[in-house]
Amino acid sequence: MKIRIDRSACVGNARCAAVSEAMFPLDEDGYIATDGFEVAPGAEKTARNGARACPERIIYVEEDDGTISWPPQKRA
């Protein structure tokens, strides 16, 4: 599983960092400081919770098969 982050859309709510500062580090201005990362085995639940905590929905959970499981995708 991977986490992908659209840093340019971060507004600095820091809710992701409240879930895990180690996974979702912030820069000196309080914005997300990573573009994403591979999720270590056993850390999937924390990574998902951090992604879901973002009210802007700029943190994407990419499953091993390449599908995006969060945020919900809009249907046509």
From TrEMBL:
- TM regions (residue ranges): none
Q: Does the keyword Phosphoprotein apply?
A: no
Among InterPro entries, the record links this protein to: Fe-S_cluster_ET (IPR051269)
Q: Which Gene3D superfamilies match?
A: 3.30.70.20
The Gene Ontology terms for molecular function here are: iron-sulfur cluster binding; metal ion binding
Secretion signal: which residues?
Answer: none
Keywords tagged on the record: Electron transport, Iron, Iron-sulfur, Metal-binding, Transport
Pfam families named in the record:
Fer4_15 (PF13459)
PANTHER family in UniProt: FERREDOXIN
Entry protein name: Ferredoxin
The lineage, from the top, is: Bacteria, Pseudomonadati, Pseudomonadota, Alphaproteobacteria, Sphingomonadales
